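Reading a protein record of the kind used here takes little practice once its layout is understood. An example of such a record is reproduced below.
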Amino acid sequence: MTDAAPATTASGIDLAELDPGIRPQDDLFRHVNGRWIARTEIPSDKARYGSFAVLAENAEEAVRDIITGTPTPAPGLVEGGAEAEPDKVAALYASFMDVERVDALGAAPIQSDLARALAVSSVEDVVMLTGELEHRGLGGFFGMFVDNDPGDPARYIVFVMQGGIGLPDESYYREEQFAEVREQYRAHIARMLGLVGLGGAEELAELAYGLERRIAASHWDKVASRDIQKLYNLRDFAGLQELTPKLDWRAYLGTMGAPEDAFAEVVAAQPEALTGLSELLVEGELEAWRAWLVWSIVRSSAALLSQEISRANFDFYGTALTGAPEQRDRWRRGVSFVEGAMGEAVGRIYVERHFDERAKASMDALVGHLIEAYRDSIRGLEWMGPETRRRALDKLDRFTPKIGYPAKWRDYGALAVDAADLVGNSERIAAFEFARELAKIGRPIDRDEWFMTPQTVNAYYNPGFNEIVFPAAILQPPFFDASWDAAVNFGAIGAVIGHEIGHGFDDQGSRYDGDGRLTDWWTEEDRAAFERLTGALIGQYNALSPEGAEGQKVNGELTIGENIGDLSGLEIAWKAYLRSLDGAEPPVIDGLTGAERFFLAWAQAWQQKSRPEETVRLLTIDPHSPNEFRCNQIVRNLAAFHAAYETRPGDALWLEPEERVSIW
């Protein structure tokens, strides 16, 4: 294992890392990262490793220091507002790290729930218990969350999504390539039920798995499930009940602790999947529902039970699915537990200690250049007509950048925790979040809310808010350094900024206008031209198979949104870099031209190594392409790359000019 962060020179590019044996014209990704890949062993607790993972580890260590800086409170509920947050954070962490107590309790914390699950004697009982478990974070029929309404972005609404399964995706229950995983999963369910002391574990496992398979049979696939126009199915309460006639929603919401008026209107995202699950709520399936309830309880709580149970759960969800041979250190899992519960309480201190406000000013300037570069590009698009262009520019004008940390921190006053009650803490956290989310219904949209913590190494675009968000933790090498040469910052964080703006104009983001409303603001001719370009990009990616995938190829339709983001992000970042020079010639630094530094920085940011199992899993469910193609396939489409490296036919990254795709 080695550190992926570059020991950079004055430019920000680590020249010693470049592999002269691999030409950038043939493989830019390995020209920059090949030496690192060759000498780096993926840590035993990870399925993949690279630039993002290194920064995430550093952030975890910083958060651990914050958490452990407060003495552990005495056992008993810790309550109170902002003044009590450090004690709550310390108590949460202590409850997770008390291995002696966790092992002594074993599966005792869930025994009463298991007994109740095995005792259900009617479909009504199944519905009532599932609602209660949903409230406590121990399972549920569906995925549910609150967001602003795509059709009316000034109001919040509940989204009801397909759910009820324990494998990553419906394809795992039907595709031949996952036959071995299915057998491992069935054996895993039986093993876990045995570990929590249930008799007849094999039979229960078969029943639970069989019901999951029947639930999954009506699920939408991953491609359909990212199509916002298909997902946006507005239903009033009566319409929701009509969609799922065998599920009594009033009873379900009652035991869930959800006010019925919060469900007065919902987005029923995948109607067939909701109906399909409802159709299984019949007396003939009662035995299977008992087993499903038991498995839901065990699966949802396994990570919080004894080390033996937790390790057994990791054996499947970690090793079998992703290839990682070992669990993460317990302290790292403890940090994740705390961050999942009180991430912004920790984030407030993280920002005070680790975020340089000068980075915010530099990012503001970078974002400004990217916005202007997009504006120049949109004005010059040959395939777009004037009416659509006007609306696109209007949307660009309405983008809201958020950098570093929230303007307003989350209030955790209603959350009570206990240093001696790990499972209870988990259930109280779930109930707190459930109430916090549903309380949004009927209130004005909170545009100050963040959906990532400042210590998260990532970024996002939110189409309903038309905002791009860059947490503090990503604003460091290899993505950004205020002291670096502009070409490197534009090639790394600049392309990330461009990527997130690009999501506002990808195949799904382009369905939203500048106010975050789902509406068709395109002319038919312009949408058709756009889809011809995206279709060509889909075709490019459908032909690619990453190392370790045993010939399995990228799903161009699943990844098209992220591929558009990558392509537009890098292309616009290059234009923004040139724009920032204000007509001056880019300097040569460390023997590298501005263009070379720009593209090397792009490749440096995508440094990653992955286990074969994880590569296959991500090809199935991840809307992002493998990192080697996020680097290489994108640059093949950029004339600036071919000019910088003087590529020609015969080079592996050569792409005939007429086959290159340029969208935004």
